[in-house]
Design brief:
The chain is mostly beta strands. The protein is built from one helix and five strands; from the N terminus they run E-E-E-E-E-H. A hairpin with a 3-residue loop joins strand 2 and strand 3. The longest helix is centred in the last third of the chain and has 4 residues. It starts with about 20 loop residues before the first strand and ends with a helix. The mean pLDDT is about 85.
């Protein structure tokens, strides 16, 4: 296993999500002189859509360290 593996999702019409694939959504924010954070959400593709496998908070007031 590697940190990032194939398949990679792009705008190509050949890229398809299939049932039981797990993908990550990795939004991040970086502030000059302050630092940054990247949240990684593991998503399971299901026959009905998707299931978020992570239970971490996603609202800014819950993730910003004070």
């Amino acid at each position: 296993l590697d940190i990032h593996e194939q398949p990679r999702l792009t705008a190509s019409p050949d890229d398809r999500l299939r049932k039981n694939m797990i993908v990550t959504i990795e939004p991040g924010i970086y502030l000059t002189g302050c630092g940054g954070i990247r949240l990684e959400n593991d998503i399971l593709v299901t026959s009905r859509g998707h299931e978020n496998l992570c239970s971490l908070p996603t609202s800014l007031d819950r993730v910003i360290l004070r």
